[in-house]
Each structure stands twice: as structure tokens, then as C-alpha cells.
User: Which sequence fits this backbone?
């Protein structure tokens, strides 16, 4: 029965949401308290579920319903991690919104929608049946849509929501088709049974097709290139929605791939596509982010990039690491959005201690050598030799990132004390990263499939990824030396515009057309 | 051919003048790192409110008044009386066709919404259905955000050769306008002249503006919102330093190039409408009937508030001022938030006296904080720094170095967090740490950055003579030349908030948007200087040997006062310092209890928590509610509640030789107060044009400002949450009432010499009263350097008059 416990969390939140809708719109103090308490209670539910899992092992609750049309809670390491994560972030965001929206006429409905969205996400992550998965997936998206249009009169909000709606419904169609195929080929709606069967058996053609559709659903949900446009334009709604979206809802794509990892590993080609799309989106997003001057916009591009990186990890069949990424990124991004009001102080503090020391080519070369040395040492300490090559490639990419930190400390103008500090930071970052990875691997050993040995296609893609990420890392370390050359000006403009993918999408959908009812342009257009 | 050229050159000059005029019609906006309130009608003070309202209705599509129902409610509630309405009618020469019943009828119905003249972008949008105004604003916003960025983006935009040249480089590469149908835009931009003046000329020629664009250029600058205001601030600062700057003019050129391109593409469809618009722009501005009514209601509401103020000053004081030497004499900023605290502090013990003075305490310091290279101008933005200071510890350079290394390592870490490939490493390694940060900030354990611990000092140091002159000037300006207490607290003020882009707007405006701790500590140190005191004796200022000056910082969010007793050479006896601390703590809790009544969702006990709540959009009220400025001895206002709505400047005219201090008060603190008052006014009545929009949607851009939502125009002014609590206005938009206790002739004499100050009063942007020898508001200033006696009005209950 302990396996049914997680269902309590979305139930309580749904109840709290119902209460909030009935509360007054302005300053619904009691509803705010009840909603926060229900969020705290769902954290407790997640923790108790964790204890249950430790004591009784993984399992699925008895189904509510018949055959394919049943709901059931699945309790295992994957769903537990997601339950803990979503309920914790949900609490933080709801608590924030309770104060932040004070004085807003429709605060009651706002927290109602937000709590309901959270309930849907909690339902999704504990899905024991295919039906529940679909219900949670679609409901979270539709509820979020209401939050994105919290200010329905804002033209930019409508534009973004329309794009999101189109992308999401396409994704829903992909997911539903995938689920139907899976149900047909495995002849059950129970996810645990499907996963066990997939782990035992080989790959059927239908399974491969389902995996492809799962991948499409995930790519669309996680705002991968070229459908990322909506994600970078949803700042037209209060900050807590952005936090919830970027830390909760957008992860559903990755969660889907991880949940069906046993199915996905059979579809090598699909995984290869994920590596390519994810890898490209990661590089693309992180380069565009460099050019963004508005803090929330910059954070949104960062999410696009991070989701790409997570998809890349899934494509490399490194599912435990992808799950770690979801957790780490969600916590970071929720905080970053909620704290985005500090951007003025953060930017002001940059110029206080004097000019930035810029590393030259020699320093960058040394930094990369040092970073690889750190990698080797940590590799020996953490026993990386027995890791799959995919994990090693990923580690190399991350260590290139660390090299940038070392390079800053090696710049000619940087004093020793600074070099020492940045090196210390670099080693801590590298050590923390590999330690977390190891923990994640251990925790997920029995839940998620092991990474298969790479074939020629995988080797090629890995090499490609390591080389391109490495090249970008070097370019970025040498950054100020070339970025302000007039020859780079065009590149910067095109990147700042996200390579126009979003503009073309808007053009296609008529996103910048005025509503037909407005014969004359509204005066508010100038605001 | 020669003739043609001559005509064009003539137009060129006229257009340059028109462009310059349009640029100057825009008020400057300071970056949020250190922002100060600015009068949004800075360039319109030579007009009346009615004329300005008519101008902004034409080009901004806004009314400069609240909805009529606001005034109707006040009339029904008896707050605005018939006498107030009559007085308003009599004060307005244009209103001879309206009588009281007509005015009352007009209040009952809302006026037609005003519609601005359309720009070419709007006309083109009407024709094609594409949101050209939105797209133009989005494109200019994207470019300007990159250009003005102070460090948010790691890859900033190039600033080579100024705004216009940088934009040409941007726009010739940018494909977005063409994707949305503005065909050949990049080529069009490439063909524009490289010189912004020439580009303006060419665009004016294409648009058929002739030599006189009328109000059109001003409208275009309004349409880019905060970007124009920020650009104007660059020019404003340059001119104070004796340089010139064309950033705002270049922004106008950019906006005009868009109009030109859109016009060329849609000429056939919009030509006839455009001709009408062009003609309308050059017509003289005259207020519409509804605008006159708005103006009358505004004046009536102000009359009502002035009546209340007069009654407050006429009522007997609740406090008897003791003749004894005060144990604690505390000087605060004139800021309206000090009024509550001063009143509370005085009520705690008869041994306390307070003083009000501009919060930079006369020290125009350009200051470098501890371990910082950034020179902060901690003085009113109208002035140039007169002294230089730093917080570096002189005998301990190593501490400064260490702090810098720490800060630089943190900065390197910040770049690691944001850079392309390393951001992935950052997230995977450090993401889990943010669970702790979410807990810390969510539960309110985060704290803001307080004042530097290190004592500030002049750098380069000043010689004794210079220090003595400085001390004498400040003391005389404070009217504090005798009767020194045992302890004199010099208290600056600052706000203590977290996660708030508007933190600097809550700091001290007289300190240039920084906290006032540095100036207060510098002054306290200066006045404790034995050498300085000896010199002062020669100038008839005798500071008793046992008088100790203490620097302090009044935290306006929590009403806690920090004392910098560590700055003193000799320790204060524990009894004494504890006594002072105890009084300050008592005053703090009284002030919090009073403020909590006006602050939404607050109780006296929860006020302090708000300063640490990262989700709080109204940590304190700021200067909301400000409506009066009183320059008089404290005895005139002591023991009377001015409800945290009055600036109080101590001034004793009998001590003022040649009325030099009075001149300073009228030309500096009064102007600063008027900027604050009119900023609140404009952000309340016309939030779409002069407000910063909804805090819930704020997206900090470039570390200098905010956009609402995704992008587009930067928004200057005050956010909606700063003037409205969701139910009602926290700031009743009233223009400032200035009451000065000084001989009328002396005031007139000063106004005669300062045309800009006179214009503020003549055109009723401020109302001026003179206080008589009994501390009563006795004369009202009227346009044309005249006084009208205010007999009896203050003493009679308003309802009785109405009968």
C-alpha cells in the first residue's frame, strides 16, 4: 500500500487548488497559507515515500480503474527523485508567489492555477500507467497555458502562448501515438511491466517507432531547436511562473526519456538523433545566451541550452546523469529566476574590483592542459576507467568548461592569489561534479539500464561532440580577444537574434499580426 | 540648383534645432544602480499642467489625471469642498466658461479616452495588419539593450563610434525586419548617411516634414520610452561636466530611419492620412475642455490638502520644547520618511531634539567604497562633486587587496556560470547547492549588503582651512550654529532590501541614489576634529568641548538606526551610548507601528521581515504620499503629525545673512523635492508613459533598468506597485506644497533672480506659501511675484464654510 502513498501529494494540491479558486481574488491570505501547507505536506509525502521505498523496494500501487484505463502510482528511484524535486520547488515557488503577487486582483485564481499545474506535474512523475502519463503530461501543459496567459491582454503573451500551444499539442499527439504503439506492442498499460519486458526482450519494430515518437514528444516539450521560440518569450507572465516552467514543466521531456530508458536504449538511431539535436541546441542556446542583455531572457536561453545538454545525455544513454542534470538544473534555475531582481546589484558588483584580466592563447593552452590533468587525477580517484566511453566523453566536455575558470586565473594580469583561488574553485567544481555523478549512478543502478557499448555511429557522434564543444570552449576562453573585431559583428547580430529560427516561426504563424478586431492600432502599442 | 541647396541647408539647421528641442523635452532617467527621481516635465516647467497635458495627449495618448471617479468620490466624501472647487475655478483664467454646477456635472462622467496622433509605424500597421510599432520598439530595444549593457551579457554589443554608428552596423546585419516584411531594410539602412544629423535631415525630407516637424520628433522619442530617457541622462551628465553628447539625438535618428523606411514602403496607402498627421503636429497646442476640467480638479484636490496642512500647523503642539540643553540632537535627511522617525524619537524623551537637512549633509562626495574602483557620486545629481573620499583603510592595504581578490574570484566564478560550455559544468557541479539557497532565501535568511565597516576618509585629504570652511558652510546651512547638544547624531538614510531592482530608488535621493552613511560619517568626523572646532570659534560657532558628533544610518525599511561609534577616537561611556541606543530602538518600534498602518499586509511586528523577503514588492512605501515641503524651525512642526508626507528642512531666517541659505533651499532641496513629487505624480496619473510598469513582469536589462516582459522599451519612472497597493493609490497624486518661514520680500527677491524656480511656482508645478511669525500659513504666492493673504481659512472647519 505504501506504493500508493505518492498519490496523496497531487490529491492534496488539487484540493488546495480548488480552495484557492473559491477564495477571494485579492489578498486571499487563507488560501495562500493552505496552498503552502499542502506543498509542505507533499514534501513530507515524498520523504515518507522514500522511506517506504527503502524498506519495501520499488513497486506500483494497485490500479484505480480497468485494463488500459487505470491510474496507478509508481514508486521507484526515478519517481522518488522527481517527487522530491517537484514538491520542493513547488513549495518554494508557491511561497514566493504568495507574497510576490500581493495586491494583484486575481491572486486567488493565480495560485489556484499554479497549484493545479503542480499537482499535474506530480501526477505525471509518479505515473504507473500509460494513461496517467498522458493525463499528467497533457494536463500540466494545459494548466500552464492558463498561467502563461495570466495577463491575457498582453500581445506578446498571446504570441508566445500560441506558439507554445501549437508545439505542445503536436507533442501531445506524438506522445499519445507513442503510448498507443507501446500499449499495442506490450499488451499492457502498466509501465513497470513494459519496462521489464523491454529490458528482457529485444527491439520490435513497433517499439522503435514508439521510441521515435517519445523522442519527438520530448524534444518538443523541452524546447529543442528549432521549436525553442516559445520558451524564450514567456516572461510576459509573473516571475514565479517562469520559475515553475523552467524548473518543473520543461523537464517533462527529459523525464519521459528517462522513464522509458529501457525502451529507448533499443533504438540506437533515435538516440543518435537525440545526440545531434540536443548537442546542437546546447551549443546554440549557450552561444545565444552570451549575447542577451536582459536577465530573464538570458536565463531562458540558458534553459534551452541546458535542456539540449540533458537531451544529449539521454542520447548518449547516460540516463542517471541526465536525471542528475534535471535535478541540478531545476534547483539552480528556480533560484535564478526568483532571484532575478538582484541582477542590478550583480552587474554593479562586476566593475567594482577593477578590470577583468583577459587570458591570452598561452594561458588558455595551459588552462586546458591543467584541466585535463585534473580530469586524469580525478579519473583515477573516482575510478573512471570502468566507465562507459560515453561518460568519459561527457566528462571531457565538462572539463573543457572548467578550463575556462582556470584560464581566467592564469591571465597575465591576474595575481597569484587569484590564480590560487580560481584553481581551487576549479578543482572543487570538478570533484563535486564527478562525485555527484557517482552518487547518481549508484542510486539508479537497479532502476535505469546500463549504457550500451558504443557502435561506429556513436563513436563518430561522440568525437564530433567533444571536438565542437572543445572548439567553442577554446573560442570562449579567448573571447574578448576576437569578439569585438568588426568581422565578428555580423555573427553577434545573428546569434543575438537566435539565428532567426523564432522570427521565421512567428512569420509562419502570423505572430506579429494585430488582432483583426483592432481596426486602428491600439494606443498601448507604444507602452 | 544652388537655390535648392540653400533651402536644404536652411532646413538642416532648423531640423537640428527641432531635434535638439525634442531631445530636451525628454526627462533624463538614471540607471537603477543609483537612480534618483526626476521631474518628468523637466522641460515643460515653462508651461502649465494644462498645456503639458494637452501636449502629451496629442503625442503620448495619456491624460495627466486620475479617472474622474476618484475626484467624484473625494467630493462626495467632503474631502474636496465647494470652496476648493471655487478656488480652483478662480485660479484658472481659461475656465471662465465653467461654473461650479458645470464642474460638478463634468466630474460625474469619465472623459473620452485620448488618442495620440499616429506615427508612420502605426499608420502602416493599420494598413497591413502587422504590428509595426511593436516590432520597431522590439528591434530598437534589442539593439539598445546590447549597446547600453553594463555587464549582463558576456558578449556585449560594440559601442564603436557611438549609438547611431553601432546601430547601423547592427541593422545592416539584422534580418528580422525583412523577415516580417520590411523589404530591403538593411540596404535602406546602409544607404542612410553616416552622420546622424544628416540622417535626420534625409528622413525629414523623405517624410515631407519641411523645416518644422512640430511635436513629431518629441513623439518619436516618447515612443522609445526609457531608452530615450536613459540616453538623455547621458547627455545631462555630460553637460554638467561641461561636455556635449548626442546619444539621445542619435536615438531619434534611428527611430526616424524606421519611419522613413516604413513610409517609403507604404506611401500609397497612408499618404493622405500622413499629410493630416503632419499638419496636426505643427498646430499650436491648446488644452481641450476635458483637459481643463482635469486641471481644475487637480487644483481643487491640492487646495483641500493645503487646507489640511494649514490646520495641522495651526493646531496646538502636543510637545513642549524644553529649554534645557539636549542630550541627543539628531540630524536627519529632509526625506518624508524621516518625519515619522523624528517625531517618534522626540516623543521618547524631552532630552531629544531633531534637525532636518538634505541627506548628503552638504558634502558633495565622490566616493570609492571598500575594495572598489567605482566612484559613486553621493550628492544631488544637479551638482558636481566637491570632495573625494574612499573607504580604504589607510594602514591596511592588504585587507583591501584581499577583498579585491575575493571579489575577482567570485567574478570569475560568475563568468564561469554564464559562459557557453562552462555553464553545463557549473550546473552539474553546483546545482544541488541551490537547494540550500532556495531554502535560505525562501525563509528570509538572506540579507542585503550593508554599509562598509571601514571608516570613510577624504582622499586626497583636505587641509585644515578647507575642512574648517566646509564645516562652517554646512553648519550655517543647517541653521545649527549654537545650542549644540551633548551628542549630535548625523544620520544619513538608506533602504535595506533584497532581490529588489529598485533598491537604489529607496536610498537617499540627495546622495545620488546611494545610502547616506558615507556623507554622515564624513561630516561627523569633520566636526569632531579639534583643529576644525578651534577655527570655527573664530567664526562665532562655539561647539562645546564635550559635544560628540556621531555618524549614523537610518534604515528606512526597518527603522533601525546603525551608529558608527567605532569611527570615534575615544569611546563613549557605555551608559550614554546605551541610552541613545535605547531611545533609537524605542523610536524605531513607534515608527514601525505607525508605518505598518499604511503599508499593505503589514503589522508592526512584521515590518522588519519585509526587508529580508525576496518576494516582497512593497518592502516599504518609499516617498509615496509626499505632498509638502516645510522650511521653518522645527518648533513649527514638532509634536504635530505630518503623516510621513512632508519634507522638513530646518531654517531660521533671522540667522540667515543676506538670505543665502534661503536661496540655497529654494534652488536645491526644493527642486529635488519637486522632482520626487512630480515623478510620483506622473507615475500615478500616466503610468503607461511615465511609470515603470508591473513589477511582476520586470526583466532587468543591462544592469541599468527594466523592461516589462520579453523586451521592447526600457521603462523609467516608478513601478505600479510603488504607487498603488492593489486597492487604492498609496500615493495621492498632488503637486508639492512648499511652505517657507521667511519674509515675503526675501522670497520674491530670490524668485526674481532664478527664472527656472519662479517658473515652477508661476505655472503651479509647485505651490508656495509663506509662514508668518506665529508659524501659520499666511500668504499664498501667485503668478507674477504677488502674495495673497490666506486669512482665517486654516482655522475654520471646512464643513462649516460649505454651509
Assistant:
Amino acid at each position: 500500500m505504501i506504493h500508493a502513498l505518492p498519490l496523496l501529494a497531487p490529491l492534496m494540491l488539487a484540493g488546495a487548488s480548488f480552495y484557492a479558486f473559491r477564495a477571494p481574488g485579492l489578498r486571499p491570505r487563507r488560501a495562500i497559507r493552505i496552498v503552502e501547507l499542502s506543498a509542505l505536506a507533499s514534501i513530507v509525502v515524498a520523504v515518507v515515500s522514500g522511506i517506504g521505498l527503502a524498506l519495501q523496494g520499488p513497486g506500483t500501487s494497485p490500479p484505480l480503474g480497468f485494463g488500459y484505463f487505470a491510474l496507478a502510482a509508481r514508486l521507484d528511484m526515478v519517481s522518488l527523485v522527481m517527487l522530491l524535486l517537484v514538491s520542493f520547488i513547488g513549495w518554494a515557488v508557491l511561497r514566493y508567489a504568495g507574497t510576490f503577487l500581493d495586491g494583484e486582483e486575481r491572486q486567488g485564481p493565480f495560485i489556484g492555477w499554479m497549484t493545479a499545474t503542480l499537482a499535474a506535474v506530480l501526477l505525471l512523475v509518479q505515473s504507473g500507467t500509460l494513461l496517467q502519463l498522458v493525463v499528467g503530461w497533457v494536463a500540466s501543459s494545459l494548466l500552464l497555458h492558463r498561467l502563461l496567459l495570466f495577463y491575457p491582454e498582453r500581445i506578446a503573451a498571446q504570441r508566445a502562448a500560441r506558439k507554445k500551444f501549437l508545439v505542445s499539442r503536436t507533442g501531445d499527439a506524438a506522445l499519445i501515438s507513442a503510448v498507443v504503439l507501446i500499449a499495442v506492442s506490450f499488451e499492457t498499460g502498466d509501465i513497470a511491466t513494459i519496462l521489464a519486458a523491454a529490458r528482457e526482450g529485444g527491439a520490435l519494430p513497433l517499439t522503435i517507432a514508439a521510441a521515435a515518437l517519445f523522442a519527438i514528444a520530448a524534444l518538443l516539450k523541452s524546447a529543442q531547436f528549432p521549436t525553442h521560440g516559445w520558451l524564450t518569450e514567456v516572461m510576459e507572465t509573473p516571475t514565479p511562473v517562469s520559475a515553475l516552467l523552467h524548473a518543473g514543466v520543461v523537464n517533462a521531456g527529459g523525464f519521459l526519456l528517462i522513464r522509458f530508458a529501457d525502451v529507448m536504449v533499443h533504438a540506437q538511431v533515435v538516440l543518435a538523433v537525440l545526440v545531434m539535436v540536443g548537442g546542437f541546441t546546447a551549443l546554440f542556446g549557450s552561444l545565444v545566451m552570451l549575447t542577451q542583455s536582459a536577465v530573464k531572457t538570458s536565463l531562458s536561453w540558458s534553459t534551452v541550452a541546458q535542456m539540449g545538454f540533458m537531451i544529449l545525455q539521454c542520447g548518449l544513454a547516460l540516463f542517471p546523469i541526465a536525471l542528475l542534470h534535471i535535478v541540478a538544473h531545476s534547483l539552480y534555475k528556480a533560484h535564478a529566476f526568483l532571484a532575478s531582481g538582484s541582477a542590478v546589484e550583480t552587474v554593479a558588483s562586476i566593475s567594482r574590483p577593477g578590470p577583468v584580466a583577459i587570458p591570452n592563447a598561452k594561458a588558455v593552452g595551459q588552462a586546458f592542459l591543467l584541466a585535463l590533468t585534473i580530469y586524469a587525477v580525478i579519473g583515477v580517484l573516482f575510478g573512471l576507467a570502468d566507465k562507459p566511453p560515453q561518460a568519459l566523453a561527457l566528462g571531457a566536455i565538462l572539463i573543457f568548461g572548467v578550463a575556462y575558470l582556470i584560464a581566467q586565473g592564469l591571465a597575465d594580469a591576474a595575481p597569484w592569489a587569484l590564480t590560487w583561488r580560481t584553481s581551487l574553485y576549479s578543482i572543487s567544481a570538478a570533484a563535486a561534479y564527478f562525485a555527484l555523478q557517482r552518487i547518481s549512478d549508484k542510486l539508479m543502478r537497479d532502476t535505469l539500464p546500463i549504457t550500451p557499448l558504443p557502435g561506429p555511429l556513436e563513436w563518430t557522434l561522440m568525437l564530433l561532440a567533444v571536438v565542437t564543444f572543445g572548439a567553442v570552449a577554446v573560442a570562449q576562453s579567448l573571447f574578448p580577444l576576437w569578439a569585438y573585431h568588426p568581422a565578428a559583428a555580423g555573427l553577434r547580430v545573428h546569434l543575438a537574434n537566435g539565428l532567426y529560427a523564432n522570427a521565421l516561426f512567428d512569420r509562419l504563424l502570423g505572430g506579429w499580426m494585430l488582432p483583426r478586431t483592432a481596426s486602428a492600432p491600439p494606443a498601448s502599442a507604444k507602452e | 540648383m544652388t537655390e535648392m541647396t540653400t533651402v536644404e541647408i536652411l532646413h538642416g539647421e532648423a531640423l537640428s534645432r527641432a531635434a535638439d528641442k525634442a531631445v530636451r523635452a525628454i526627462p533624463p532617467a538614471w540607471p537603477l544602480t543609483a537612480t534618483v527621481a526626476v521631474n518628468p516635465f523637466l522641460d515643460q516647467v515653462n508651461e502649465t499642467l494644462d498645456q503639458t497635458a494637452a501636449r502629451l495627449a496629442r503625442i503620448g495618448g495619456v491624460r495627466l489625471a486620475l479617472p474622474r471617479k476618484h475626484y467624484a468620490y473625494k467630493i462626495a466624501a467632503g474631502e474636496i469642498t465647494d470652496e476648493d472647487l471655487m478656488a480652483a475655478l478662480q485660479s484658472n483664467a481659461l475656465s471662465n466658461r465653467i461654473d461650479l454646477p458645470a464642474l460638478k456635472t463634468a466630474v460625474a462622467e469619465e472623459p473620452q479616452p485620448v488618442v495620440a496622433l499616429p506615427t508612420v509605424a502605426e499608420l502602416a500597421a493599420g494598413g497591413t495588419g502587422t504590428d509595426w510599432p511593436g516590432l520597431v520598439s522590439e528591434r530598437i530595444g534589442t539593439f539598445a539593450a546590447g549597446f547600453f549593457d553594463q555587464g549582463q551579457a558576456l558578449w556585449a554589443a560594440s559601442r564603436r563610434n557611438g549609438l547611431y554608428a553601432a546601430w547601423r552596423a547592427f541593422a545592416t546585419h539584422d534580418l528580422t525586419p525583412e523577415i516580417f516584411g520590411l523589404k530591403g531594410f538593411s540596404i535602406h539602412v546602409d544607404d542612410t548617411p553616416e552622420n546622424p544629423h544628416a540622417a535626420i535631415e534625409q528622413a525629414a525630407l523623405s517624410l515631407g516634414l519641411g523645416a518644422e516637424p512640430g511635436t513629431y520628433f518629441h513623439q518619436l522619442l516618447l515612443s522609445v520610452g526609457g531608452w530615450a530617457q536613459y540616453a538623455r541622462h547621458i547627455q545631462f551628465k555630460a553637460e554638467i561636466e561641461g561636455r556635449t553628447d548626442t546619444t539621445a539625438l542619435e536615438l531619434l535618428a534611428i527611430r526616424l530611419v524606421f519611419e522613413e523606411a516604413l513610409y517609403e514602403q507604404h506611401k500609397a496607402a497612408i499618404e493622405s492620412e500622413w499629410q493630416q498627421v503632419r499638419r496636426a503636429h505643427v498646430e499650436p497646442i491648446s488644452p481641450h475642455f476635458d483637459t481643463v476640467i482635469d486641471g481644475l480638479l487637480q487644483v481643487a484636490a491640492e487646495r483641500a490638502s493645503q487646507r489640511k496642512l494649514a490646520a495641522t500647523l495651526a493646531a496646538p503642539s502636543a510637545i513642549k520644547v524644553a529649554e534645557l540643553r539636549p542630550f541627543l540632537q539628531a540630524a536627519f535627511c529632509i526625506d518624508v520618511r524621516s518625519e515619522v522617525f523624528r517625531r517618534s524619537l522626540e516623543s521618547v524623551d524631552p532630552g531629544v531634539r531633531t534637525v532636518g537637512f538634505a541627506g548628503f549633509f552638504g558634502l558633495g562626495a565622490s566616493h570609492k567604497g571598500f575594495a572598489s574602483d567605482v566612484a559613486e557620486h553621493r550628492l544631488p545629481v544637479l551638482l558636481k562633486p566637491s570632495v573625494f573620499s574612499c573607504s580604504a583603510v589607510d594602514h591596511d592595504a592588504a585587507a583591501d587587496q584581499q577583498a579585491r581578490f575575493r571579489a575577482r574570484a567570485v567574478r570569475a566564478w560568475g563568468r564561469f556560470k554564464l559562459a557557453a560550455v562552462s555553464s553545463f559544468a557549473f550546473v552539474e557541479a553546483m546545482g544541488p547547492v541551490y537547494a540550500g539557497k532556495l531554502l535560505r532565501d525562501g525563509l528570509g535568511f538572506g540579507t542585503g549588503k550593508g554599509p562598509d565597516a571601514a571608516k570613510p576618509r577624504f582622499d586626497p585629504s583636505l587641509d585644515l582651512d578647507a575642512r574648517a570652511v566646509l564645516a562652517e558652510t554646512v553648519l550655517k546651512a543647517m541653521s545649527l550654529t549654537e545650542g549644540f547638544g551633548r551628542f549630535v547624531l548625523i544620520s544619513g538614510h538608506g533602504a535595506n532590501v533584497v532581490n529588489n531592482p529598485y533598491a537604489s530608488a529607496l536610498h537617499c535621493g540627495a546622495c545620488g541614489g546611494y545610502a547616506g552613511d558615507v556623507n554622515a560619517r564624513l561630516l561627523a568626523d569633520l566636526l569632531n576634529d579639534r583643529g576644525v572646532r578651534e577655527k570655527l570659534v573664530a567664526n562665532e560657532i562655539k561647539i562645546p568641548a564635550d559635544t560628540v558628533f556621531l555618524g549614523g544610518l537610518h534604515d528606512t525599511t526597518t527603522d533601525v538606526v546603525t551608529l558608527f561609534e567605532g569611527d570615534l577616537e575615544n569611546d563613549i561611556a557605555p551608559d550614554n551610548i546605551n541610552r541613545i541606543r535605547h531611545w533609537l530602538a524605542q523610536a524605531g518600534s513607534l515608527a514601525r507601528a505607525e508605518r505598518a498602518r499604511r503599508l499593505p499586509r503589514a503589522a508592526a511586528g512584521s515590518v522588519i521581515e519585509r526587508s529580508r523577503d525576496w518576494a516582497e514588492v512593497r518592502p516599504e512605501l518609499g516617498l509615496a504620499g509626499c505632498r509638502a515641503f516645510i522650511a521653518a524651525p522645527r518648533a513649527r512642526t514638532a509634536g504635530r503629525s505630518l503623516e510621513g508626507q512632508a519634507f522638513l528642512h530646518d531654517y531660521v531666517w533671522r540667522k540667515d545673512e543676506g538670505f543665502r541659505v534661503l536661496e540655497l533651499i529654494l534652488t536645491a532641496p526644493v527642486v529635488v523635492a519637486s522632482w520626487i513629487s512630480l515623478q510620483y505624480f506622473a507615475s500615478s496619473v500616466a503610468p503607461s508613459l511615465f511609470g515603470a510598469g508591473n513589477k511582476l513582469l520586470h526583466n532587468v536589462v543591462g544592469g541599468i533598468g527594466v523592461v516589462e516582459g520579453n523586451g521592447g522599451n526600457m521603462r523609467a519612472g516608478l513601478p505600479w506597485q510603488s504607487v498603488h497597493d492593489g486597492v487604492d493609490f498609496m500615493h495621492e497624486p498632488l503637486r508639492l506644497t512648499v511652505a517657507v518661514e521667511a519674509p515675503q520680500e526675501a522670497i520674491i527677491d530670490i524668485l526674481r533672480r532664478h527664472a527656472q524656480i519662479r517658473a515652477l511656482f508661476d505655472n503651479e508645478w509647485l505651490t508656495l506659501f509663506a509662514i508668518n511669525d506665529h508659524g501659520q500659513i499666511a500668504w499664498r504666492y501667485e503668478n507674477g511675484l504677488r502674495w495673497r493673504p490666506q486669512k482665517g481659512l486654516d482655522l475654520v472647519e471646512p464643513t462649516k464654510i460649505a454651509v
User: Anything to note?
Assistant: DSSP finds 32 helices and 20 strands in chain B. Chain B touches chain A through 126 residues (CB under 8 Å).
